[in-house]
Fold this sequence. Notes:
The structure holds two protein chains of two kinds.
Chain A: H1 2-19, H2 30-34, E1 50-59, E2 69-70, H3 86-107, H4 120-130, E3 138-147, E4 150-159, E5 163-164
Chain B: H1 2-24, H2 37-40, H3 49-59, H4 63-78, H5 84-100, H6 108-125, H7 130-156, H8 159-162, H9 166-171, H10 185-200, H11 209-230, H12 233-240, H13 243-252
Amino acid sequence: MGTSIIVLLVIYFLAVVALSTIKSSYVPGRAIYLFRALFPSWRFFEDLVDVPVLYFRVSSDGTDFGPWVPSFEKIERNWQSILLNPQGNLLFAYHGLLHQLENDIEEVDESKAEEFVDSVSYKLVKNLVLTQVPTNSHFQFKVSSVRQGKPEHAVDVLFSLVHEAV
Amino acid sequence: MEALLLTEKIIAVAVVLQTIELLFIKKSFSDNGVWTWRVLKEEFTIFPKAIRKLLESTLSYPNFCYLLILRLVCAVLLTIFSHPLILTFLLLSTVLICVRWRGVFNGGSDYMTIVILTALTVAAIFPDNYWVTFGALWYITIQVCSSYFVSGVVKLKRANWLSGRALPVFINSTIYKPLPISDKLIIFKVSSWLIIIFECSFPVALLHPNICLLFIVVAFLFHLINVYIFGLNRFLYAWASAYPALYFCSQSL
């Protein structure tokens, strides 16, 4: 039985090598995407890629805006994070939200671009910025796509409408 | 079976820690937070009414907090004793948490947690069937071996990894402030190749229990380093819970 299992394992891992040549792609279909945790993907840190970065700017009257400010600040390392790292994992979740927003932008039909403000991803990112801006201010956010290791290569992929923080 | 019991205890600890973390950040999914239910539920209109009602009852705020508290209680209980209902609830609640976060909360650790809980739940439902238990342990083992192997194989095709250029960029592209790292590319090239060789060779751990123990120690240290550099604490416990199954399978060949 041991030999049979070894043979099966060798075949399995050869198949894995063959399948790994297929570029992973974004699977459309909201139901599948919501339940994708049931279909593990073990591709970690595969390559340097473009990552979305969120900025926002604030105005008191909706016309005279301040400079663009990055939404997330990097945090300090600490050894307690071996056990619990809620702030760190929340930041990972924010980054996941931005990745989802980027994917959703790519799926938008250009003729219906203005409807994107009604998308769940847009509204959640707007909520994220809302937690960071002063109440009763006006704000706008943008998402830039930045190549890892080459921050000078940044492309703006989304400018939001001007919103009011109530 | 001892391997199954140990896997249960370690994943129970992992789930306890995961749930405490989620409760710490409950403001983010409250009605005044980022992942508000009022917005999220728009995505679930694709499901039938019965599913939408289930999701509304479990994922809206504050019901989601109650679900997390119940999950915490069940995970603590699992550290003491096992029952199919506890494992089934932990599995389903993990899936619901992932759905609440629109697919996954933490990516890889969610995948591995679900793999482990699925295997444990099936084994618990058929406790007197040796072959079901055997299959559950092998399922965990195949998945954990694949997690390292696939990760290594895909890196083999990337010039950035083979040259060592990717690693320093990843190290300083984390959620943390940059580390004062060397500018000598050769250090990162050697480190990258060590990582690739370790990951690609992981299935060799199955050939002998002593080899398996060596791989487990190296893997554990690898994840510990990743906790410090990248903040991936959840990976440490999720993967550690798979190691008893891995060791069992290395003995059974």
